[in-house]
Amino acid sequence: MIPTGFNKDMKTILPSTSNFSIFGYLFFTLTSVSIIIGVVIVCLTSPKPPDKVCKFIVKSEARSSITIDSYPRSIVVADFNNDDRLDMVVPNSGTNCIGVFMGDTNDTWKNQITYCTGARSIPYAVVIADFDHDQQLDIAVANYGTNNVGIFLGTVNGTFSSQTTFSTRSSRPRYIAANDFNNDTIIDIVVINYGTNDIGIFLGDGYGNFASQAGTIVLSDCSKDLQEKYSSSTLTIEQLDELVEQFLSAVDSNTLKTIGYTSTIPLMPYSISKAATIALTRIEAKQWSNEKKIFVYSVCPGYCNTDLSAHAADSRSAENGADSILYLVHTPSDQLENGGFYLDGVQFPQINQDQDLIRQAFERISKVNAAK
Predict the structure, then answer these.
(1) What HEC string does the chain produce?
(2) Do 195 and 252 fall within a single domain?
């Protein structure tokens, strides 16, 4: 027999255990059913995958010879060799050169051809344009490390000449652009300079130099010492370069009068550049006449009716300006002074003291300055 007390205890425990099992089984069953229903719903409502699946695969096929230390700063794309394929040029600031990649077949590029920009030049940016009017694209580069702009002239086959540099003096150019800023149909260059908080503009001349009466007039109003230096018969190219560098430094430091540039004529840098051109003509004339019997002259086309003169009413036609140049072409050399400066067949002194001419030049240059 089972003791009555034990039987009572069993009756107390068994109902509790049975209730717990029923609720547990019920919860498990409902949960399982919910999961199954959810899976079925997802399977029935999900869109069917397409028969064909598009895959986006990127594969590098272009060969590159840029080394790990090149640090290219920018890129310009153009057709350098006229083969209807795009080429590229990059300034490699880490290796002090520009790299030209010529376009190849199948949208690839040949290994780069490098052109040196100079030790520690750190080229930052490039721009392309036809700077010398030969229908070939040229390259200009902003050399941050050596404070200059470098020009690489292009050839027919897509190669480039060695670099010619133009100083930005104390400024470090970081960005560069090209356009015709003074409407003379010649491409100019502008750079953004780091360190001096300014921009620098280089006005192009198409690689043709023309003298101006301003060059003979500006010196007449400068110190006697400067007049003697510019007109000295023993002046050398090195000495002339030094004179120009001193002038540029004085412009930067605002000390022109201190070193003898006392003229009040407007556009002083323009006038001094013409005075230097006339002086250089005399130096070159002496050198080439002795070596190869070549005669060198400087000529002024006059105050012509162009965009530069703002088409002033008292300006002359461009045709008359051309005649002034052609006069020297057709005149026998024994009737001209080698190294002389001419306008309309008349020779002018290197330092012109004609007060009426000085007054006219002052007024005309003032008009040009106002038009700008």
Answers:
(1) CCCHHHHHHHHHHHHHHHHHHHHHHHHHHHHHHHHHHHHHHHHHHCCCCCCCCCCCCCCCCCCCCCCCCCCECCCEEECCCCCCCCEEEEEECCCCEEEEECECHHHCECCCEEEECCCCCCEEEEEEECCCCCCCCEEEEEECCCCEEEEECECCCCCECCCEEEECCCCEEEEEEEECCCCCCCCEEEEEEECCCEEEEECCCCCCCCCCHHHHHHHHHCCHHHHHHHHCCCCCHHHHHHHHHHHHHHHHHCCCHHHCCCCCCCCHHHHHHHHHHHHHHHHHHHHHHHHHCCCCCEECCCCECCCCCCCCCCCECHHHHHHHHHHHHHCCHHHCCCCCEEECCEEECCCCCCHHHHHHHHHHHHHHHHHC
(2) no
First to last CA, the chain: 128
User: Which of 176, 202, 228 lies at the terminal end of a domain, its last residue?
Assistant: 202
pLDDT tens-place string over residues 92-149: 999 999 999 999 877 788 889 999 999 999 999 999 999 888 889 999 999 999 888 8
Tens-place pLDDT, residues 280-310? 999 988 888 776 778 898 888 877 887 766 6
Q: Are residues 321 and 275 in the same domain?
A: yes
Token pair of 329 as six digits: 């072409």
Tell me which residue range forms the domain holding 180: 76-202
